[in-house]
């Protein structure tokens, strides 16, 4: 029923009541019936208004790509971090930071991270965790790690589709940006390979939202068990901290972690309820996530799709590599 119809009915009832007022004794029963009808009309009118006021659900655009454009992450190098807000799925990159990935996997398998709090969470920056003491002063019983701020990229086994350019923080030369799997990186272009003797190109990860990186002191080789997950882009950390992974599913959880620092008044931190390697989880209980391939032209198709959605070209940290759950 439209608003105009409802208003017309309401007006009709009002006019009828006015006429009946001239001869109440003759039409008492009819008036009572009309009053009841009037109440029904008001109820219908209210329902109609509520229907109009209630906003219709907005469809979220979804990038569509053929099945060949998606890949399944290696469960041996996939980390599950369960929180009260949901599960974070982080892809690990032993080819970029072997020492740090080995440490994360070892501690996860020992149950070291279960119940550990996010002791330092800064809005617009990152979620820091991994300290068994819960105050930022603790570590695992193992030795500190050697820094892995950068890595050598073999162009044959680690192809990158160029997305942009910047000045390299490693040597100040011109570099390009792109993705290795789901990780945003800066690297010298493939054209410079002939200038190297080792057959690989200097590269480093970028601290964009979702990236997992290792915490440390002012001493470069001091990372141990604490790490942080980026809530937002913070590029001053690039090539200064060891990146070992990237979030591939559950990005919304990153900004749901409670903001605050342990020791502040009235702050009760969120925690990592359980941390597991996907390979250790029964197959039927794993997250069936697939990630868009970035070693093919499919990444360009996605970039073009984003540009049409946003009305502008996306910078490297604005591009969140999409994932989907396999049916």
Walk me through the structure.
This protein has 327 residues and is an alpha+beta fold. It folds into two domains: 51 residues; 259 residues, Cyclophilin (Beta Barrel). It contains five helices and 19 strands. The strands form four sheets. It has a nine-stranded antiparallel sheet with strand order 15-5-6-13-12-14-3-2-17. A hairpin with a 2-residue loop joins strand 9 and strand 10. Helix 1 packs antiparallel against helix 2. The longest helix has 26 residues. The radius of gyration is 29 Å and the shape is globular. The two termini are 41 Å apart.
Percent range of helical residues? 10-25%
End-to-end Cα distance, whole Å, is 41 Å
Sheet with most strands? 9 strands, antiparallel
Rg is 29 Å
Shape summary: globular
Question: Could you give the topology of this structure?
Answer:
Layout: H1 3-20, H2 28-53, E1 70-71, E2 78-83, E3 86-92, H3 98-109, E4 116-117, E5 120-122, E6 126-129, E7 151-153, E8 164-167, E9 174-180, E10 183-187, E11 201-205, E12 211-214, E13 227-230, E14 243-249, H4 251-254, E15 260-261, E16 271-272, E17 274-277, E18 289-292, H5 298-310, E19 323-325
Antiparallel strand pairs: 1-18, 2-3, 2-17, 3-14, 4-16, 5-6, 5-15, 6-13, 7-11, 8-9, 9-10, 10-11, 12-13, 12-14, 18-19
